[in-house]
Design brief:
A hairpin with a 4-residue loop joins strand 10 and strand 11. The protein is 26% helix and 39% strand. The protein starts with 6 loop residues before the first helix and ends with a strand. Helix 3 runs antiparallel to helix 4. The chain has seven helices and 14 strands. The strands form two sheets. An eleven-stranded antiparallel beta sheet has the order 7-6-5-4-3-14-13-12-11-10-9. Strands 1-2-8 form a three-stranded antiparallel beta sheet, with no helix packed on it.
Length: 319
């Protein structure tokens, strides 16, 4: 049987074909092979607002110490686009200090006063660099000077902040690793195709704050949920440092910085008597794959030194 095609139908056929092809190209969650691809489909001038929640603390026995818990708002805007990639600006709203009782945290939040971070992104959405890193370094040094002016040498929380800020300002690479963690979190899963419930195991590297050489690490990535209708994907990653390398680096750092006195209580035990130590990052993220915007992201960084566990939890939530 022949199907008669009327002139009006002939005019509509190219439209329907174009619609089908456009939909196929923009849809990055593929229900046919249960895969998802995370790519940027951003336009210049496009922006999103995020609530950023940071919670840092230490666990010693049953006690939680040196807690820093604060929330920030940031607007993320695409300011440039080319064949080389994108420039995105992270503009932080000045933190509300009225509800922050700890004067140490108030000083620390000076890092985010009038803060704008300009980042370069490759065409696939991967982080490349901070373009205005000198401004961030100078801002961190000012906050560091303000903290030192408190002159509270017996304040463990303050001393921890001062040590961290000193490490942040050593170089551009240190700043990009340690000072913009919520930004680096945003770009974690871009540029790859992931299969549903098919873990990807890789060998990788992890930054080493105790020395120059990064740690060998194992990485496991899993696409744990996809929604073809909503074009969303949930991805998870576990990044674990090599235990022996991590323990060696921590032991060497402690040995180098141990007090110089005759008190035997300050002597370090032998290396093989140290308790087991490890470092792990756990990342989870929900992404709208049709646009490339992150809907929710979270990183939990756990550093276990045997007797002390240092925790950092950062969440990024679209408002």
């Amino acid at each position: 049987m022949k199907i008669k095609i009327y002139p009006a139908m002939q005019r509509l056929i190219p439209f329907f074909l174009l619609h089908i092809l456009t939909t196929a190209l923009s849809a990055q969650v593929n229900r046919y092979d249960s895969s998802a691809q995370v790519l940027p489909f951003w336009r210049v001038g496009e922006s999103q607002r995020y609530l950023i929640h940071t919670d840092k603390y230490r666990i010693v026995g049953d006690d939680t110490l040196q807690r820093r818990n604060f929330k920030l708002h940031a607007e993320v805007e695409v300011t440039d686009s080319s064949d080389a990639g994108y420039i995105m600006e992270w503009r932080y709203q000045n933190p509300d200090l009225k509800n922050v009782a700890d004067s140490n945290v108030v000083k620390y939040l000076g890092l985010y006063q009038n803060r704008i971070v300009k980042v370069a992104i490759d065409p696939y959405g991967n982080f490349e660099s901070v373009e205005n890193w000198e401004e961030l370094r100078d801002q961190a040094k000012k906050v560091l000077d303000d903290m030192k002016s408190l002159n509270q040498t017996d304040n463990a929380t303050l001393n921890t902040m001062i040590r961290e800020l000193t490490e942040y300002t050593d170089s551009r690479e240190d700043l990009e690793v340690a000072m913009i963690r919520e930004i680096r979190l945003f770009y974690t899963f871009f540029g790859e195709i992931y299969k549903f419930n098919d873990p990807v195991l890789l060998r990788s590297k992890m930054p080493n704050v105790y020395g120059d050489k990064p740690f060998d690490a194992s990485t496991e990535t899993l696409l744990s949920d996809i929604n073809d209708k909503e074009q969303t994907a949930v991805l998870r990653r576990w990044l674990t440092a090599d235990h022996e390398q991590f323990q060696d680096a921590v032991y060497d750092y402690m040995k180098k910085n141990q007090p110089e006195d005759d008190d035997p209580d300050n002597d370090l035990p032998y290396r093989d008597e140290m308790p087991p130590m490890n470092r792990e990052d756990r990342i989870s993220m929900k992404i709208h794959c049709g646009t490339g915007w992150v809907m929710f992201g979270m990183i939990v960084r756990e550093v276990n030194l045997g007797t002390v566990v240092s925790m950092e939890e950062i969440t990024l939530e679209m408002e």
